[in-house]
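hey so u asked for the seq, here:
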Amino acid sequence: MNPQLVWTAIAIVAVFAAVATWMYLQKRRTEQLRGRFGPEYDRTVKERGDRAKAESALQARAVRVERLHIRTLSPDDAARFSESWRRVQNRFVDDPRGAVTDADRLVAEVMQARGYPVGEFEQRVEDISVDHPNVVMNYRAAHDIARDHERGKATTEDLRQAMVHYRALFQDLLEVEPVHEPAARPAEPVRGQ
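ran it, structure tokens below
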């Protein structure tokens, strides 16, 4: 057999294997990001207009949030925030506009207590999307309604819907660290047996 033909065949197989491996890794990366970010994956792809750019942006978000040292709430903090949420919801009956403003503020407080930066809204949304991808759309929708409310363009039904959106995000953010009970002491051996 011609050695040049053998080397050509080996090169073709190596190129084919490299391309197949690259395609497999791209598909796997896409599946992982789609699984992690849920609906936010599709939204980002649509917004960026390019899957590779969107995936790079989502990966960068994940790296950024990993550096933030996000923590769970203590049971006491969770109880305090839950009570605050109950008061905000009760306020909605008499003052829907004030309740929506308070709900937005309370969500920001919970985010801050968990370790998320609470600066510019779009950055908050991106940060939240990493760990809470199924409710980030609620945050966007509630924020849009809150902005309409500031301009005097939100109806009471819009404000009610904003509260529903804020509640979904609030409940998802309210993860609580487990309470560690002291380990039970082993039973004393019975004497005389």
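The CA atoms of residues 65 and 127 lie 6 Å apart. The first helix runs from residue 3 to 37.
lmk if thats what u needed
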